[in-house]
Amino acid sequence: MCHHCVTESVKSRMLNRRDFFRRSAVAGAAAAATISAPQALFAQKAMPTKVEDMTHTLTEDFPTYFGDQQFFVKPLFNYAEHKFNINEWRLNEHTGTHMDAPLHFSADGTSVDEIPVGDLVCPLAVIDIREKASTDADAQVTPDDIRAWIEANGDMPEGACVAMLSGWGEHVTTDKFRNVGEDGKTMHFPGFHIEAAQMLMEETSTKGIAVDTLSLDHGPSPDFAVHYEWLPSGRWGLECIANLEALPAAGATLVVGAPKVKGGSGGPARVFAMV
Ligand SMILES: N[C@@H](CC(=O)c1ccccc1NC=O)C(=O)O
């Protein structure tokens, strides 16, 4: 073989080998994926095309579970005087669109800063109970609602957040959000039924539940049954979620921008979903 021919033959063999390695790497990755697929963070198969904000704007008069003001803003510096703006905040962790960390209802559960960041991005399942909530303020997400969701959308995705869409978000600026009854104390708004929470814990790998109301439990609950079942199990909750009606029942990816405050039992979060 002439010098040129030898060089060309070596080059061609090298290219073939590179091709071979590339092909085996792809095949290897595919095989690995079949053997132990890493848990999917993203619900959708294609790149997301829009982001929906699921966070209510936090204001000092934002409605609270016990009715008292829980968020206070004190201006420390203002632009007119100081040429910059800085406010100081005082707030209860469970105010506005916020997370309930496992520690909220347990002696030594995970605090908000300890929740692994990979648990804060997950597929979102939206259970729409608006119809029954429109005629019954005390409506609850029941095992039947979960079964109906599965019937329509397939199995619950791995490691999902299951959200209740009751339509209550539209009442956030009015007294109807707390909806105190004639006895002057009992609230009436939708939430999760304890048996639905148990079903999600026993039959799915759901890691979070979310509500568009002030509590995971429905308004008249006397005992925080869902809080006491769900949170000590190491799972988290989201309350006062906005804009669920803009999201599909299945297929969105939730991102929870929970605060990383040491020892926090929860805290206001920027919550959004990619569709
Ligand atoms: N649904 C509310 C309940 C709540 O905030 C709460 C429940 C029991 C005892 C105190 C509470 N918040 C007080 O500031 C929450 O879990 O954030």
Automatic annotation (TrEMBL):
The keyword Hydrolase appears for this protein: yes
One Pfam family linked to the record: Cyclase
E.C. code: 3.5.1.9
Keyword entries, A-Z: Hydrolase
A single MF term (Gene Ontology): arylformamidase activity
SUPFAM superfamilies per UniProt: Putative cyclase
Domain of life from the UniProt record: Bacteria
Name of the protein this chain belongs to: Kynurenine formamidase
Phylogenetic lineage: Bacteria, Pseudomonadati, Pseudomonadota, Alphaproteobacteria, Hyphomicrobiales
Originating gene: kynB_2
